[in-house]
């Protein structure tokens, strides 16, 4: 019944150089933390990432209908 | 086929659990901040064009292929009839290639530029590609859409869905590098908060023998409640966000019907589009339109994993026997209550929370999985057990310490960020900065997207590692027909003139007519069945000759 599991679809060794960007690197073994510690630090970082002029940016994000 | 030796993949998946042929579709929100009036369809075509240039660079010969529309049947209704074309909304006619109106193009970018480089050799803009990973990338209405290849496990859905976000990222980078084009942002969300919504769909293969009425009854209470696990969170209540606040789901306020064929108007909780993209008398492709697009891997994993298990319950006749009173209203009641204490009425008179409903489904799914053996640690299918464990852990956290679920449940992760801003800066829910946090949460650029900022700090859990996602950009899944499709595109791209979910079409010099290879069995065309064939042939002519069983195959190398 579990025959499929002998195949590991993600273990192939195909490597090719492309300019598809990689996702940001993971800190190995680190457990995601649900703790609120570091929230201020996080908000400070995000302050620097947020688009400037929130009101205008949000207002200009207008989409046409989709499914 | 002859009898298989031990250990060889079968063409059937274990039943009763979370394994199933399935796939995701993501319509990305699209926006050029420096050119806010730009035509959205034109910009979406730019995105497809950008990926074509990325793949052309990757593979000489062009790893791109046009879509074959032969088997699209968007007006077939699963309840047993076909909508007349004349009474269909134009947006339902998805079986015809979208035509880019030259006027719209000229309006958006000017005629000169179109003549210079906006068109391919045949004079039309590229609107549709089949990728080497088996996915489809195309312009759907006014959005770029990535449809993942068919996979068989919830873990693989997460990998190949996230691969779509890397494909989208590659296009955004490519456009940004062109000094003549305005930069384009893509967002993995479902609404502009100004009364427009666009979808993130799921597809699940089911036996056609399951009565559609059973699917409606079995799924509706589940869909009303599953958002507590896989909602992506939204600032604002109502389709136009006119009421300040925060809600669990991006999509809930846009649903107006219980059952129906439409996907763009009068959206129904259960969509009846009946395009199996496979042998029609054996299979049904259940098209689910009610989900939110997920960046959180755990929410995405559970969205597919638990829905696949509920379909197993329906197939086994073991879905909880409950019916929700006025499910559309209940869907919105659940979405609008972030305390998870609101109750909805069942037809038997009980009042229950969304979590109560989820627990009923969990208990039934765990029982069926145990009875059918798929959740066994040693002899199970290797996936169902993990889905059950994560489902149980998530429901437990949602019933107690909501903060404990903020690293996995997307609407809670987003809410923790919004609450941080509200507490620090005393912002009201209608403050534009909170709207921006909501929007920018889903920016697919890792340096701008707030989900990715949390991920980089390990505040979001991973289901698959980054290497697996990067590989899924290039490689098809090995265990479905997507392997055959993707390998045809990446190995013989210049001789493949079209492809769809259930066909690949070759135009090989010297073969006279087009060769259409049907792929109507989703679990055929796997690496096990066709990998050696790809490895034996370096040109399409000899590959096809052996595949089609002709005796003209040249001697093997």
From TrEMBL, chain A:
Entry keywords, A to Z: Isopeptide bond, Ubl conjugation pathway
Where would one find the signal peptide in this protein?
none
Pathway given for this chain reads: Protein degradation; proteasomal Pup-dependent pathway
The answer on whether this UniProt entry bears the keyword Cell inner membrane reads no
Which segments show compositional bias classed as Polar residues?
1-11
What the protein does comes down to: Protein modifier that is covalently attached to lysine residues of substrate proteins, thereby targeting them for proteasomal degradation. The tagging system is termed pupylation.
Q: Which family does the similarity line name?
A: Belongs to the prokaryotic ubiquitin-like protein family.
Name listed for the protein in its UniProt record: Prokaryotic ubiquitin-like protein Pup
Q: Which organism is it from?
A: Arthrobacter cavernae
């Amino acid at each position: 019944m579990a025959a499929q599991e002998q195949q590991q679809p993600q273990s192939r060794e195909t490597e090719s150089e492309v300019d598809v960007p990689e996702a940001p690197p993971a800190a190995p073994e680190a457990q995601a933390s649900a703790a609120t510690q570091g929230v201020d630090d996080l908000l400070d970082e995000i302050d620097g990432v947020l688009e400037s002029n929130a009101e205008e940016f949000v207002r200009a994000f207008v989409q046409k209908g989709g499914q | 086929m002859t009898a298989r030796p031990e250990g060889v993949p079968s063409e059937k998946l274990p039943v009763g659990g979370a394994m199933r042929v399935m796939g995701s579709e993501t319509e990305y929100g699209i926006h050029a901040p420096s050119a806010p009036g730009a035509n959205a369809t034109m910009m979406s075509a730019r995105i497809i064009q950008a990926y074509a240039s990325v793949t052309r660079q990757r593979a000489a010969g062009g790893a791109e292929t046009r879509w074959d529309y032969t088997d699209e049947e968007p007006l077939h209704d699963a309840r047993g009839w076909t909508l007349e074309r004349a009474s269909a909304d134009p947006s339902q006619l998805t079986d015809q290639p979208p035509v880019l109106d030259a006027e719209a193009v000229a309006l958006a970018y000017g005629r000169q530029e179109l003549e210079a480089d906006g068109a391919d050799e045949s004079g039309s803009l590229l609107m549709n590609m089949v990728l080497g990973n088996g996915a489809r990338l195309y312009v759907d209405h006014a959005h770029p859409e990535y449809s993942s290849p068919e996979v068989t496990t919830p873990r693989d859905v997460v990998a190949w869905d996230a691969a779509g976000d890397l494909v989208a990222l590659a296009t955004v980078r490519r456009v940004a590098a062109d000094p003549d084009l305005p930069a384009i942002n893509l967002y993995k969300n479902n609404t502009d908060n100004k009364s427009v919504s666009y979808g993130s769909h799921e597809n699940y293969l089911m036996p056609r023998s399951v009565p559609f009425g059973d699917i409606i009854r079995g799924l509706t209470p589940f869909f009303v409640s599953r958002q507590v696990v896989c909602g992506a969170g939204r600032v604002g209540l109502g389709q136009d966000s006119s009421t300040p606040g925060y809600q669990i789901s991006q999509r809930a306020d846009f649903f107006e019907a219980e059952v129906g064929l439409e996907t763009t108007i009068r959206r129904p909780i259960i969509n009846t589009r009946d395009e199996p993209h496979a042998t029609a008398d054996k299979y049904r492709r259940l098209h689910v339109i009610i989900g939110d697009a997920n960046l959180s891997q755990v929410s995405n994993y559970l969205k597919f994993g638990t829905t696949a298990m509920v379909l197993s319950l329906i197939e086994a006749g073991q879905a909880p026997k409950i019916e929700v009173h006025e499910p559309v209203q209940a869907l919105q009641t659940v979405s609008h209550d972030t305390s998870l204490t609101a109750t909805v009425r069942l037809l038997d008179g009980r009042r229950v929370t969304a979590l109560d409903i989820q627990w009923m489904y969990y208990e039934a799914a765990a029982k069926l999985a145990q009875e059918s053996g798929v959740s066994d640690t040693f002899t199970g299918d290797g996936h169902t057990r993990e889905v059950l464990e994560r489902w149980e852990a998530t429901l437990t956290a949602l019933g107690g310490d909501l903060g404990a679920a903020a690293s996995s449940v997307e609407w809670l992760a987003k809410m923790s960020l919004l609450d941080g801003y509200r507490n620090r800066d005393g912002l009201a829910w209608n403050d534009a900065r909170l709207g921006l946090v909501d929007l920018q949460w889903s920016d697919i650029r890792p340096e701008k997207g707030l989900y990715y900022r949390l991920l980089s700090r390990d505040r979001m859990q991973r289901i698959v590692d980054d290497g697996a996602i990067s590989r899924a950009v290039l490689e098809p899944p090995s265990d479905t027909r997507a392997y055959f499709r993707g390998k045809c595109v990446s190995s013989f791209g210049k001789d493949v003139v079209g492809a769809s979910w259930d066909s690949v079409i070759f135009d090989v010099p010297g073969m006279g007519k087009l060769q259409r290879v049907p792929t109507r069995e989703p679990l055929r065309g796997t690496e096990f069945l066709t990998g050696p064939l790809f490895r034996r042939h370096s040109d399409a002519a000899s590959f096809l000759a052996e595949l089609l069983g002709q005796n003209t195959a040249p001697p093997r190398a």
